Structures are given as C-alpha cells and as structure tokens.
Amino acid sequence: MNRLVMKHIFFSSISLLSLLFLLLLEACADSETLSLPAPDEEEGSGVYVSISVAAADSRGTQSRAIGSPKPGEYGDGPQPGTGDENKVYDLNVFFFQTTDGKGINTSDTAADIELVSVFFDNLTPEPSGTITRYLTPPTEVDALRVGETYEILVVANAGNKTISNITNLADLRDACVTQAIEDTDGLCFLMASAGSGIDKIEILAGNSQNNPSIVTVNVERLAARVDYLINSSYEPVQSPDDKVVITEATLVNKHETSPYVFKRVSENVQNLEPVIYLGDEKVADDGIASNYVLDAQTIAMNNRIYLLQFDGIMNVTPSPWLSITADGKYHTLDYTEENVVTVQYVEESMSKYCTGVVFKARYTPDGMKEGTSFYSYAGKIYEKLSDVETAMGGNIHLDGNNYSTYGVSYYKDGICYYTYWIRHADDGNPNVISPMEYAIVRNNLYQLKVNSISGIGGDKPETVSDINIRVYVCDWEETIEGSITWD
After folding, report:
1. pLDDT at residue 192 greater than cutoff 50
2. By C-alpha distance, which of 236, 253, 232 is closest to 461?
C-alpha cells in the first residue's frame, strides 16, 4: 500500500471519529447527568495566604536608663489595652519585594517598588495565650508566586477607600490619614505594622486553600492614651490643715493633624532627615534620648493644629472637662495623636506646643466651709475682699478688673487649677529640657498618678502648678503578661 493510500485511510478514520464524537455530544445534550469539566484556570490556580494580626509586641521589654518615665522604645514596660482598643475590624495588606531585604527602609527606589494589595473585612478573633489575634480567611492572591518570599506591611481599621489605592512603596510609607481614631459606632483605632517593618511571608510548594501561607503581624495604634489616678482628697504640703479635692480634668494641646500611617524616627537629634521608618527610640549612654520620633509636623512646626488649645480652655463649647473618679485605680482620661516638638520649641513655650493635663480642684482653706469663695494675696488667704485691701495698706480699691495688677487671685467657689505638661522621657535633670522629654508618641500609655499637692493652684489654668505627679510611660500592648501595677 503506497503512502497516498495510507494518508487517505488515515484522514478517513479521523473523519469517522469526529462524526462519532459529534453524535455522542448530541445524544448527551438532553442528559442532566453528564457535564464537561471546566478548564484548569477556572478551578483556581493562584496562591492562598492568611494573615494573623494583633495589637501586641513580641519583642518583650527592656530596662531603660534613669528615672521615670524611662526614655527609649520600651519606656516603663507594657500595659494592656482593653475592649475597643484592641479590635481589628479590617486589614489592608501590602506585599512587595526589595533587593536588599530592608522592608520599608529599603535603599531601592521606593517609587519603583510595586505593591500587591489585598483588603480583608471578615476577620475571625481567636484567643492566643494572653492576647486575641485576628485571622483572615485563606484568600487567593494570583499576583504572588510559589517559591518567592514577600515583605509585608499592614494597616488595620482604615477601610478600603484610601489606603488600598496606593500602588508603590514610596507612597505607602509616606501616607497620612485624616485621624487616628474613629468615633462613630464605638471607638475604632487605626493601627499599622509595628517593629522593623520587615515581616515576611514565604510561598511554599503545596500552597492551596486548605494549606495557605500564613504570616503573623503585630500592629500598633497611631494614637496614645492618657490615664490618671488620684486620691479622694489631698492635704497640701504647704498648708496641711487645708483640703484639696480634684473634681475634673481635661487634656490640652491635643495634636490633630493627619498623622503618618507608619511610625518614623530621626537618625539623631541634630539631623531630622532623612527619616527611618518604623525605627526605635534610642537612648545614649548618659540616659538621654538620642533621636526624635517624627510626627507629621515635627519638621514643619508652623503647620501644627491642636484640637483643644491651652489658651482657649475656658471658652470651649461643649465643655471639655471630664468628671474625675477617685477610687485608687487608673482611669482613662483621653486619647490623643503624636505630638513631638524639638527642644527649641519646647523651651519657647510649653503652653503653646506641649500636650498637658489640667486638673480642676476645689480648695478648702482651714476653717472655711467647702465651696466658699476666697482671695489669695502675698501667700495668704482671705475670705473678704476688704481684708485684702487692708493687707495692702488700705489705699487701693480692688474691683475685679485689677486683681492681676496687684497680685490678687480670686477663687470663686474655691475652684483652682493645676496644670501638668506630660513628660515622655526623663533626663535626670529638672533644670534642663532634653530631646523627647515632653512628647506624645503613638501606642504609648501615659499613666499620671497625682502623688501630692504642694499648695493652692491658680485661679485659672497656669503653666506652673504646685502639684507632684508621677508619670509612667508604657508600651500600650494587648497582652497583660508582664504588665505593671504601680505603687
């Protein structure tokens, strides 16, 4: 048989097979039990990942330098967050690769590093030891490849409107948000990757929906918390027969200017730029802070905006004052954003730049009824204005408009004020202001314990008050393991 005949028979066989196949398809068209398999690509051939996240710090605590508050990244140790402060409602997760492995601090051109972003909003809380971690479901991310390792940055509770639109590392690490706390249906704290910012996930062979690649990430809040502890009453050191009861308090100079999503620090106190992303606060051998944490306006001080300024505290509606609970326990006074100013500005004016707490108190002099109005002049207290005029020689008429001219203070209903500028890092020298001494830093918990009161406060909020406050600055973690109970 020649080649031509063989070729003809071969094609005839193909035609016959094709015809039989078409007849088979037609016969099966009416059948409900037979279906063709879907192509492989429709079955899902991507990589699956799952993220476990919590407001916790796996680095542990370290003792730092002198005094309290202790300077440095770990301050006075950890304290737990509670309730809404720890909740993670959603996650924006960003995957990227750098050649030097330095994560957000890569020396590569960050604008050239593309991000793969995934948004999760159905996280499952899972208790893990002393903390609760939030786990995303296994999610397919087709842009990731088996055999590759990716660096990860996460942003929690930001929703999917703004952050998720960022496409390169440069824009992500310089991103700002409108505010650090949402207060609509309960408090919601914006959080972002903590630590060095080089959490990594390796995509291994055998990856599947039932065997996803998992990475554990710790996040920190962009806000800080201020707590207080007071006694039911105080006996002033200068006049132990008098009595002081603290009734209300408010936080002043609350910074309110679009915070950076990711923490940043300077290399040292002389050069604030270039910045180090997700860096640590450093302490020199002498126990003094040796770099700055940088908020969004540390460098451009003229852009600072404060929600409640010190010089307007008495004329704010609605009232900013919070009623005080005196039961020997710490209570939350307020939350605020980072507020870090350099030494030169702190020395210029604490009342203009530094975050502080003002305590309103009722002062009762010995022999007077609580709530009685009185006057103070030359270190002495008078119940009647005429007695003050007599003490001044009887030649001066006081009418309320000239009190300050003659050094007279009037305490209506016995109300006085004690102001304290919150300290972040002790330098061991009360006569010198050092870097980071007066600062508010994200994810720190500032615990203010009023130990004693020296004398009467001002008849209006003052920049200096006779009050002794012990301050502890704690890393605001979720874990209660190793937390501190202060004396």
Report:
1. yes
2. 253
